[in-house]
């Protein structure tokens, strides 16, 4: 009887302990308050250009490894308050978040497993934390980084790029690509046909002569070389083409690849973006049968269209007769702007090259934004057409490039280049326009900056940048800076009073009397300053007995 009673008691204790443990866990989760503004300020939809990132943008996380997590704004925006958590799909804490800079962040008192701002006064554009992935969770486990951000008197939470999901995984082992077996050299025509117009892409289209395609540049190459690819990081050459429309650095990178490159082809860009860039010649062979090309969408922060690693060799040891490729826009990951006319906002560190879609960036300033579409309407197409095939030895070996008398690397084997004008370095985002009259194009005004004074009267400033300078008599640029008055709360000033006067004579000649002293107000208090004290004091005085 006593044994059964004891067993029952143990069961009750275990059940109670388990329930209590679950209750504590739930209470920890439920107690995480990520709302900002104290419930009095409105929450806005979307992410407003704020985003959560993991440095190097891994495709998955590895158990037990440490990662740096960033909460960033898109310049010129900043933020003062934030809360960030790392949770699993059930909303429970996952892994361990820790702070790296105590001047900017601290562990959140209102959200035990989250991090928050160290103060709500200083403006921030980027805050970095460390996250340690839990050990032994197994594939299929995922972490969700979720953030709340306050921008002045509105705040945003979890939507768009304010949430980031990363799952545990292992490196995929890709099957080796099949070698090209064509024992010949094929010559192709490479042509670009633009389809980016006010009619096809009306949303915020940069009308007038400001819209343009930069010089297009491409190459036929081996599998060992990659000019650009989805999920990769832009080289310096790709960055310069994406941001400024200059192919010079990218061509230099190609020339350094030696025998990995067969043909480099290019064509002068189109200003405005009307017409085609056609009749570029290129060759492919057994070793160098891939083709890649890029051109900048202008004006834009860092947007491109092109093809990457298109294989022209067929499985039956021949060559593709013709092929068409739709030109969809890509973000090079080097500038954080989200509209055609965004001001310069370098992305540091660089992000991976990513497709622009109707939902990325998830912001109505995105000119391709359309919740009802899944894909952007193509901005153009590339057509590759085979012109001829010349037999060649199957065991042909191609040598590295050589250097000419000017120090420039040149191919020792056949490398073709589009005849015509040589490409020259152009000023940022400005191309030679010939006979076209070009009006100045300026970015949108930034948000108004902080008031120059924390109290009293001050001034606030906003700026914009010149995207395209006026050419050939076009409309000149307007002001790049505006300022206006701002009035903060009255500056606090403590009351200032003059020194006390001497005490007066005693009010009586015998017995107990009083004395008085006075002081005047020199400056009255203002705002939250310390108020003035009493202007008069009295004290008892004792005279001889009457």
Characterise the protein shown here.
- By secondary structure, the protein is mainly beta.
- Helix content is 8%, strand content 32%.
- The protein is built from three helices and 31 strands.
- The chain has helices at 2-30, 236-244, 248-255; strands spanning 51-54, 66-72, 81-87, 96-99, 105-107, 114-117, 126-132, 142-151, 154-157, 163-167, 184-194, 212-213, 216-221, 261-267, 276-284, 290-298, 303-311, 322-327, 330-331, 354-355, 380-391, 402-403, 409-410, 441-442, 457-463, 466-468, 481-487, 496-497, 512-518, 521-523, 536-542.
- Strands 12, 13, 14, 16, 17, 19 and 20 form a seven-stranded antiparallel beta sheet that branches.
- The longest helix is centred in the first third of the chain and has 29 residues, at 2-30.
- The radius of gyration is 35 Å and the shape is elongated.
- Residues 9-30 and 399-435 have low confidence and may be disordered.
